[in-house]
Amino acid sequence: MRVPAVLLVVDVQKGFVTPASAHVVAPIETLQVRFERVVFTAFENADPSPFRDILAYDKLSPNDPDTELALRPRDDAYIHNRCAYGGGRSLIDRLRGMEAETVYLCGIATEACVLKTALDLFEAGIRPLLLADLCASDKHRRYHDMALEILSKAIGPHNLRHSGSVLAA
């Protein structure tokens, strides 16, 4: 049975899969078939960008193999490319076009793009349900844990879930 909501997978890209984040890839790939609709975001570090100019971060350039998704999205998934922490107005508009009232959120990195995307959804009036066990930092577990603490306060602890609760529903 499919969950009548949107699964939003944030930046599960080859360049963000590290020993700290690799454990989320296979479960997300499996989980996507359980949802009515699936959206993936993919970070592409354009030139110029604030990531290059302010952070001196030059990885994940457009056409770099590291920008490729680290899993196979299902055939009907929408892929939203951007050079930002969040998905911006265009992602929110796409989700509204899908009549999404609730979005299940997972991906990499909890402390950056996942956090920003969750806050964007919340501020747009779309309920983010964060699948905490399917989120990870590409740097270290402590960043993931700190982000979960912040998100618990920002979007409410009841909106942080375990993927098993989705599968059991």
UniProtKB/TrEMBL annotation:
It holds the Pfam family Isochorismatase. Keywords: Hydrolase. Residues 6-154 form the Isochorismatase-like domain. InterPro entries: Isochorismatase-like_dom, Isochorismatase-like_hydrls, Isochorismatase-like_sf. The keyword Glycosyltransferase does not apply. It comes from the Bacteria. GO terms for molecular function: hydrolase activity. This is Isochorismatase hydrolase. It comes from Asticcacaulis excentricus (strain ATCC 15261 / DSM 4724 / KCTC 12464 / NCIMB 9791 / VKM B-1370 / CB 48).
